[in-house]
Automatic annotation (TrEMBL):
Name of the protein in question: TetR/AcrR family transcriptional regulator
SUPFAM superfamilies in the record: Homeodomain-like
Keywords linked to the UniProt accession: DNA-binding
GO MF annotations in UniProt: DNA binding
Domain HTH tetR-type: 11-71
Length: 205
């Protein structure tokens, strides 16, 4: 007996749309009017795209959120690594994040060809990504830091600080050649040596 094809769930349809959108953006760029080409590639109608994801801006936002969530899934083992020293593990996580971003086809396509679309996610529109990062990273920092270490600073603040370091290393060039892993690792170590320096005993009259 022939089985009837199952109807895709809303979640499956959304993933199908986003998969097609990712392929289209990599091939055609961020400035392309996406709905027609995504609909053709996904085998769906344009009204279906609007229903399950939204307009072009909503599609880009949904893709970005999905990629960030995927990134934290692969970052998780790095944060749970065997290295016991907190600073070493932090450096490993930052280096991993920067290298991951530099090999990410969708992100690099946008930074190279349509920076006006992508850069706001790391700058003026970064708050949602910072909040998501804090939500996902806070449990790790609560586990990695001792109660004494967390008495003076919140895990949310540490998460935001980490995001700002990683974001700046992804989108800006500097004097240090951070495309070289060894140079990147040494640079991040130097930043952490400043962050973990003991506070000077300064008396202001």
């Amino acid at each position: 007996m022939r089985t009837q094809p199952t109807t895709p769930t809303p979640g499956e349809l959304r993933e199908r749309i986003l998969d097609a959108a990712e392929e289209c953006l990599i091939e055609l760029g961020y400035s392309t009017r996406l709905h027609a080409v995504i609909a053709e590639r996904a085998g769906l109608s344009r009204p279906t795209l609007y229903k399950y994801v939204g307009d072009q801006s909503a599609i880009l936002d949904a893709l970005f959120q999905r990629e960030i969530s995927r990134f934290f899934v692969v970052l998780d083992p790095v944060l749970r690594g065997r290295q016991s020293r907190l600073q070493v593990r932090f450096v490993d996580a930052v280096v991993f994040a920067v290298q991951y971003a530099r090999e990410h086809r969708l992100l690099q396509k946008g930074l190279r060809d349509d920076p006006e679309v992508v850069l706001p996610w790391f700058t003026v529109n970064a708050k949602p990504m910072i909040e998501l990062g804090a939500q996902l990273l806070t449990p790790h920092f609560e586990r990695l830091f001792s109660p004494d270490q967390l008495s003076g600073v919140s895990p949310i603040a540490i998460s935001e600080w980490a995001f700002r370091i990683i974001g700046s290393l992804i989108i800006t060039e500097g004097i240090v050649d951070t495309s070289d892993e060894r140079a990147l690792r040494e640079f991040v170590r130097s930043l952490l040596s400043i962050a973990f320096m003991p506070q000077p005993d300064v008396h202001i009259p």
